[in-house]
Amino acid sequence: MTLDPRAICRILTDERVEFVVIGGFAAVARGAAVVTYDIDVITARAHTNLDRLARALRRMDARLRTGSEVLPLDINADFLAQMQVSLNLTTEHGDLDLVFSPAGPKASYEQWADSASGLDLGDAVVVEVASLADIIASKRAAGRLKDLAALPALEALQEELGE
Predict the structure, then answer these.
(1) Do the Cβ atoms of 80 and 24 come closer than 8 Å?
(2) pTM confidence score
(3) Which of 80, 23, 87, 12 is nearest to 46 (CA)?
(4) Cα–Cα distances in Å, from 161 out to 36, 125, 133, 137?
(5) pLDDT digits (tens, 9 = 90+) for 88-135
(6) What is the pLDDT of residue 162?
(7) 152 CB-near residues (< 8 Å, 6+ apart)
(8) Is the CB of residue 125 less than 8 Å from the CB of residue 9?
(9) Segment holding 17, helix H or strand E
(10) Domains of the chain, with CATH numbers?
(11) Are 70 and 64 in contact, with CB atoms under 8 Å apart?
């Protein structure tokens, strides 16, 4: 399935979900020449926001992604409130990872939102996107090979932009 992050973000914003785009797609949105196959978001944990998130996920026909299997889910705010680390989903618009405990110094939605800024993804879809500094710190802390491989490009872009 082809990733359509704009469609995912449009549904999230239509449902008034409080979220910040983090990870690889955030880097792409900021101008990095890196490859990503999903979109990662962190959301506010308030029950009302999780209810809006659940509604958005149902609109996207979100299902659980577990390696080679895709499983149906009964998604509601109570289920989402129980998630501690992440939830890997596939939707009709591509793969979406909900990150509840991101790697790095910023652990909460509020901390990520403090330094995020609105970016227009096109077609009037404006979303909060993590700062390059936060993306870099998170990728460094995660320490996965794919994250470490992206660091030189991200750091070069950060220097180029003077951030």
Answers:
(1) no
(2) 0.94
(3) 80
(4) 21, 23, 11, 17
(5) 999 999 999 999 999 999 999 999 999 999 999 999 999 999 999 999
(6) 84
(7) none
(8) yes
(9) none
(10) 5-147 (3.30.460.40)
(11) yes
